[in-house]
């Protein structure tokens, strides 16, 4: 063994075993998540600004989507993974739902998962230009910089229709960047957040 290898920090046997057990538990949890007939989700990662919708919000957004584009529609979900499983269940075999998401844990969705980083707004497949009947998005951060970049992605992906879920403090930027209007829908989260959230869209939504 070289001196350089000797200098590398080595995990103790107990630490290595604990790490292996952690990865095994995580893998089993993700397998259960993927195969479950219910609608569970992975744990929120607050470092990625992840806050999952409650069941009612998920149901409301899925119902709005199906009413607007039908069960054979093509729908993109941008940074809102909570909606995927319910949306997938409700679409027909001819329908399509694609999740654009930074968190690679959601690669368990196979071909329906496309890695997405809002910092590279057009770093998505070229063939997806104007591909979707409806795009639903929930930008990870309440900032003008984040929304500006996500807006570029949405304009690229959608044929026309957009639903955006974000904080009430972002309303003027939503209107300026995407010309969306506030709707009666108010997203709620499983872990109550201090910020008030709304849904904005470029078509009429009735509760």
What does it look like?
- Helix 5 packs parallel to helix 6.
- The protein is built from 6 helices and 7 strands.
- The longest helix has 23 residues, at 13-35.
- It starts with a helix and ends in a 6-residue tail after the last strand.
- Mean pLDDT is 85; it is low at 36-40.
- 30% of the residues are buried.
- Strand 4, helix 5 (144-157) and strand 5 form a beta-alpha-beta unit.
- With 207 residues, it is α/β, with parallel strands linked by helices.
- It has a 7-stranded mixed sheet with strand order 3-2-1-4-5-7-6, sandwiched between helices.
| Structural class by secondary-structure content | alpha/beta
Strand element count: 7
* Main pleated sheet: 7 strands, mixed
Strand content: 15-25%
Q: Fraction of residues in helices?
A: 25-40%
Shape: globular
Q: Give the SSE string.
A: HHHEHEEEHEHEE
Measured on Cα atoms, how large is the radius of gyration? 19 Å
Mean pLDDT: 85
Count the helices. How many?
6
User: Kindly, what is the distance between the CA atoms of the first and last residues, rounded to a whole number of angstroms?
Assistant: 68 Å
Strand order of the largest sheet: 3-2-1-4-5-7-6
Instruction: Report low-confidence residues grouped into runs of 5 or more.
Output: 36-40
